[in-house]
TrEMBL record:
This is Amino acid/amide ABC transporter membrane protein 1 (HAAT family). The chain crosses the membrane at residues 6-27, 60-82, 94-114, 145-167, 187-208, 220-249, 255-279. Belongs to the binding-protein-dependent transport system permease family. LivHM subfamily. The keyword Transmembrane applies. Keywords: Amino-acid transport, Cell membrane, Membrane, Transmembrane, Transmembrane helix, Transport. InterPro entries: ABC_transp_permease, BCAA_transport_permease. Its main location: membrane.
Length: 293
């Protein structure tokens, strides 16, 4: 039983990493209707920015806050000067552009700071606490708490604020939103900026665990996309729960299913995804889209 509980707790911690990126993807989709594959690259760039500041003697908290400001500006600029040229065209073209942007950002990070592993200071202590024979690191607890807070704030943004409702209106029908007097361009910039902020938070949480490299979030991005599809593109709560489910099932399958083991555990979320898409295509917590013709 102790091993089982330990695996579940470790799965929650790992799933929180996936959830951080998944929330950013949901935010961009809710604000623009697009899937942003460059989200991981933008998060890595923010983490490098914070790491560079800490090396210049800036306190870690201040460096992370400055990286959040930098990320908001970066997201807004990317939307204004790049993505806006494609947002009203074929959605597939815009998706390909975000993939190209991911490659570009990763290359820039590697060019500026090399591809060597860098040590990013942890925001939380590295100590562990024991409870009922299970050891849990304070860093894992802190990461999970931050993701829960981000989930609650994002859900509150889209459900209970005028800004969130305006962002959703722009994503659903930008022409009607413009006719209603909403500043569509500014809202799109804000949506991308807020998503980049979530990415910066994700980068600061993940970098101490994985070591900082230009491609550190590539695998996490794949899991995050699986969590987004599994949980539902319209539900911040759903993607976080889905990311936790993926993290837990992945750990349990690696230990308790002999033919899977640690080598094939990456297949677990995709098997789960395949089953859910057959039974409930909109995701576990997503809403069906009704189109009138």
């Amino acid at each position: 039983m102790g091993t089982f509980i330990q695996l579940v707790i470790d799965g929650l911690s790992t799933g929180s990493v996936y959830a951080a990126l998944a929330l950013a993807i949901v935010l961009v989709h809710s604000a623009t209707g697009l899937i942003n594959f460059a989200q991981g690259g933008m998060a890595v760039l923010a983490a490098y920015f914070a790491w560079y500041l800490t090396n210049q003697g800036v306190p870690l908290i201040v460096a992370i806050l400055l990286s959040i400001v930098f990320s908001f500006a970066l997201g807004a600029v990317v939307e204004r000067w790049l993505m806006r040229r494609f947002e009203r065209g074929d959605p597939d073209t815009a998706v390909v552009v975000t993939i190209g942007l991911l490659t570009l950002i990763t290359g820039i990070a590697g060019w500026l700071w090399t591809y060597n592993n860098q040590q990013f200071p942890s925001l939380f202590p590295l100590d562990t606490v024991s409870f009922l024979g299970v050891s849990v690191s304070i860093r894992s607890i802190g990461t999970t708490v931050v993701i829960v807070v981000a989930m609650v704030l994002l859900q509150a943004l889209f459900v209970g604020t005028k800004l969130g409702l305006a962002l959703r209106a722009v994503a659903i029908n930008p022409q009607s939103a413009a006719f209603s007097g909403l500043p569509v361009g500014r809202l799109l910039m804000v949506g991308w900026g807020l998503a980049a902020v979530l990415g910066a938070v994700a980068g600061a949480l993940v970098a101490p665990q994985l070591t900082l490299t230009p491609g550190m979030l590539d695998n996490a991005l794949v899991y995050a996309l699986a969590a987004v599809i599994l949980g539902g593109l319209t539900s911040p709560v759903g993607v976080v729960v889905a990311a936790w489910i993926i993290g837990i099932l992945e750990n349990l399958a690696a230990v308790y299913v002999p033919f899977i083991g640690h080598d094939l555990k990456i297949a677990v979320p995709f098997i789960l995804l395949f089953v859910v898409l057959i039974v409930r295509p909109q995701g576990l917590f997503g809403r069906k889209t009704v189109v009138r013709v």
